[in-house]
Amino acid sequence: MRALIIDDEPKARQNIANLISLLNIDIQIIGEAYNVSSAYEQIRNKKPDLIFLDIQMPDGSGFDLLKKFSMIDFKIIFITAYDQYAIKAFRHNAVDYLLKPINPEDFRDAINKLQQNSDKLQDMNKIMELIQQLKPVAGQKILLKTSEGVHLINTDEIIRCESDKGYTVFYLNDNRKILVSNVLKHYEESFSENKFLRPHQSHIVNIEYIASYIRSDGGYLVMKDGSTVPVSKRKREEILQKLESLG
Fold first, then answer.
1. What is the largest CA-CA distance in the chain?
2. Own/partner pairs, 192-195, CB within 8 angstroms, 24+ separation
C-alpha cells in the first residue's frame, strides 16, 4: 500500500514511519502533511491507498479534510488523543484508529485489519456520526513528589518546566514553583505533543502560554508570565513551523 502520514507533529510523523520500518510492514510512505490544506493537496496529487490521519490539526480536524472529498477512495487509520470512551465507539464500529502515544501492537493490529478487509472502503457516514461523540481529552494530571509532600497537578496549569542540575522546576499559572528531584526527560512523555514543546534541552513549554518568538540573541520564546525560554539552533525550524501552523 502507498500511504500518506498526516499529523501536525513532526515527531508523530516520524514515529509512524519508524514503526512501519521496524515492524517490516509492506507500506510505502509517499508523502507527509502537517495540516488540512497541505493534506488535501497531497491526497489529490498522489492518490494514496491509505492515509494515517490526525484528528486534531491547527487549521481544522481530520474530518474537515474528509469533507472536502465527494468520494473517499482510500483507507484511513485515525490518529487520536481523544478519550477512551470515544475510542470504544470507534472500536465497536470497526473504524481503524491509533491512540497517541502509539502502541506497536495496536499499530500492527490496525494494519492487519485493513489488509484483511482490503476490498472494503470504510463507511464515511458512520465515521461522520462518530466524530459527534468525541470529546477532547481534559487536562491530564501529573504527580509531583517533593521533599515537602506530593502534588497532583493538572498539566493545563503548567506554564513551563526547566532543568536545574538533575532537578526539574515546574512553573505554574498561579505563580507557584515546584522543585522536583527528577530530570526533565522523566516528565517529557507525560505531556501531550499537541500541548507542549521542547525548544531546548533544558526547557519544556506549554504552547498555550507562549506569547511570542523573538529572533534576536539566537532566538527565544517569551511566555505570558513574562519569562523567557531559549530556543536551540537544532530546534528553531521545528518551533517556528509549529508556531506558524497555529496562526
1. 60
2. 192/81, 192/100, 192/137, 192/140, 192/155, 193/9, 193/11, 193/12, 193/100, 194/8, 194/9, 194/56, 194/81, 195/155, 195/156
Q: How many CB atoms lie within 10 A of CB 195?
A: 17
Task: Find, among 209, 200, 187, the residue nearest to 229 by Cα.
Answer: 200
Tell me the C-alpha distance between 40 and 85, whole Å: 29
Task: Name the strands in the sheet holding 203-206, side by side, starting at the edge strand that comes first in the sequence.
Answer: 177-180, 167-172, 158-164, 203-206, 196-200
pTM of the model as a whole: 0.53
pLDDT, tens only, 29-63: 999 999 889 999 999 999 999 999 987 777 777 87
For the chain, what is the mean pLDDT? 83
Dist. CA 247–CA 75, nearest whole Å: 30
Going from the first residue of the chain to its last (247 residues), give the mean pLDDT of each consecutive group of 10, the final group possibly shorter.
92 93 94 93 95 82 83 84 56 64 88 76 61 54 84 91 93 95 81 81 94 92 96 89 75
Q: What are phi and psi of 153, to 5 degrees?
A: -115, 135
* Residue labelled with grid coordinates 497537578: 153
**Residue type for 245, please?**
S
Say how far apart CA 61 and CA 102 lie, in whole Å: 19
